[in-house]
Amino acid sequence: MVRLLLPLVLMLAAGMSAAGDRSSLWPDVPKATGAPHAEGNAYWRKHHMEMMRHDRDLTMRDGDRMIAASLKGCFDCHTVTDETGATVTYASEKHFCRSCHDFAAVKVDCFMCHRSTPDGVDETVDHAALTDRRAGDILAYLRAIGEGGE
Amino acid sequence: MTRIKGAELSRRDFLRSGAAVASATLAPGVTLIAFGGSQAQAAADAGKRWGLLIDAGKCDADCSACVSACRDENGWGGHGDADRDAQWIRKVTLQHKATGHETTMPVMCQHCAEPPCVDVCPTGASFKRVDGIVLVDKHTCIGCRYCMMACPFKARSFVHEPVVNQKSHAPRGQGTVESCTLCVHRVDAGGTPACVEACAGAGYEAILFGDLNDPDSQISKRLAEYPSAALRPDLNLGQGVRYANL
Ligand code: SF4
Q1: Is B159 touching ligand 1 by the criterion CB < 6 Å?
Q2: Distance from CA of A28 to the nearest CA of B (A)
Q3: Residue B177 CA: which ligand 1 atom is closest?
Q4: Atom of ligand 1 nearest to the CA of B156
Q5: What is the pLDDT of residue B107?
Q6: What is the spatial distance between Cα B110 and Cα B220, in angstroms, rounded to a whole number?
Q7: pLDDT at B83 (0 to 100)
Q8: Terminus of chain A with fewer CB atoms < 10 Å: N or C?
């Protein structure tokens, strides 16, 4: 259902944003840089997961490095920066993938293993909560919070 | 949900990465785009059998350049917690019981021809590429760790904690198992593994990388000329990694 709705919703969103009177509830899809997709945005909105899944299997299993669709490739054009000019990671609502996925309530698992920015961007600060080692020792963590240390 | 594999396969031919060299409009709204030649390989070569020859005689006891190079290249640096941190490659010291003589050498995934980790994996995540490189497909790994139990070399590690700031060529994440990939991303680009480069850079040249199937490769010649051994030869695993001067 989501698969059917999402492209529809996105097309609507695009159409209305062009009209300049879209509701603030529509996803605000960040502008991309670089050359547009040859197949058009509608095709990619609908099929990006099939394309990436297909290519990931070819790359991983068969060693095919002539890849058409890859997460790494996405960030060549779909990198988003915040007000300070820093590249945002998947921890931010502004991240390209999240702008639609939050709206559609479809969780992205990719970034449990893949980085969500181009190589060279330091993601550690944005994801500090995820890697807070005090969480490994729950008692010490609670004590620290209780003492107002956090 | 239907997969559109057939359609994707044909569109791949149009969409090989590289610069566009030609485009033609076949019909309104239908554009045929052909892309220029790319240096990237289209598939792992089944005719190759990648391997390493590690000369324990040349390995310095105080050097760990291969280990740090691997860690930097693949980003598996941990939290300083030896019980849980990943180890794709480690220095192992052997002591001869009678003489007390010590030998040190790096041990990593041995890239077996008959990998026990592949035999036991319930999901097919642990697999061997046609060129002999043994990998974990983390997309299908469920973190059961059977492969860790099955590996006689303790080559695999489980990722216990959330990971951030991975290398784009070496994705890794909590709940999956990982090990030496023989720097598959470098090998596929025509390069050599980071450990090999680092060892040579440190002046030891104790690790040699190459195609075991090619009789003219440096590694094959060296193997033919000098004695070498696979670890645990009793298991008949046909490792791609062999050791000299053990
Ligand atoms: S931990 Fe992952 S790779 Fe290893 S046996 Fe289990 S599913 Fe397979």
Answers
A1: no
A2: 26
A3: 1
A4: 4
A5: 98
A6: 17
A7: 80
A8: N
With 50 as the cut, is the pLDDT of residue B86 above it?
yes
| A132 part of a folded domain | yes
Chain A contact set for B34 (CB, 8 A): none
Same domain, A63 and A92: no
Note whether A64 and A86 are same-domain residues: no
Count of domains forming chain A: 2
Burial A21-60 (b: 16+ CB within 10 A, else e): ebeeeebebeebeeeebbbeeeebbbbeebbbebbbebbb
- Does residue A58 fall inside a structural domain? yes
Residue A98 has pLDDT above 90, yes or no: yes
- Domain locations in chain B as residue ranges: 9-244
Question: Could you report the per-residue pLDDT of B224-238, keeping only the tens digit for each?
Answer: 999 999 999 999 999
Residue A123 lies in a domain: yes
Q: State which of B145, B151, B160 you would mutate to test the pocket of ligand 1, scoring each by most atoms of that ligand within 8 A of its C-beta.
A: B145
User: What are the pLDDT digits (tens) for B51-76?
Assistant: 999 999 999 999 999 999 999 999 99
Q: Where do the DSSP E strands lie in chain B?
A: 20-27, 30-35, 50-55, 89-95, 102-108, 126-128, 134-136, 157-158, 177-178, 207-211, 241-244
Look up the domain containing A118 and give its range: 79-150
| Cβ of B135 below 6 Å from ligand 1 | no
Same structural domain for residues A133 and A98?
A: yes
> Phi and psi at residue A35, in whole multiples of 5°?
-70, 140
A68 at interface of B, judged by CB pairs closer than 8 A: yes
Q: What is the ipTM of this complex?
A: 0.80
- Residue minimizing CA distance to atom 5 of ligand 1: B121
- Do A104 and A140 belong to one domain? yes
The domain defined by B9-244 folds into: Alpha-Beta Plaits (3.30.70)
Q: What is the pLDDT of residue B4?
A: 41
- Please determine, for residue A28, whether its predicted confidence score (pLDDT) is greater than 90: no
- Cα(B66)–Cα(A36) distance, rounded to whole angstroms? 42
Check B164 against A119: CB less than 8 A apart: no
Q: Does A113 touch chain B (CB under 8 A)?
A: yes
